[in-house]
Design brief:
Layout: E1 2-3, E2 6-7, E3 10-13, E4 21-22, E5 24-28, E6 44-48, E7 50-51, E8 66-67, E9 69-70, H1 72-79, H2 87-103, E10 105-108
Antiparallel strand pairs: 1-2, 3-10, 4-9, 5-6, 7-8
Pfam families: SRAP
Protein name: DUF159 family protein
GO molecular function: single-stranded DNA binding
Length: about 120
Amino acid sequence: MTEGELKTPHAIHLPGNELMGFAGLYIWGSDKSLPEDHEAYWPLTATILTRETVGIGNGRQLQEGTPVTLSPSFWDEWLDADEEGVQSLVDAAVAAATPIAEVLERYPVEPLRGDGS
């Protein structure tokens, strides 16, 4: 959440601190500037899917765009290596995320400082 120019970090979790999963995508690309036998020729690129911003907890939004949270009942389908990654699967993940966003709990935390404290 941002107030003026100050950003306040928040801890976000499910009630009871249940595990929470996010919908992510990855791809092994190729770095054509390197020889094909170079160990860094196939870098891994990953991203977390986001959707339209929704309120968390008390309804106040923390940022633009909301990560797509995966309901535990959707984990097996999302992680199934035999499942074809088509738009309908992404749409189903976004639809399943809506109820989770409504029950998330959040609270402000102290910002991390670069001095190790």
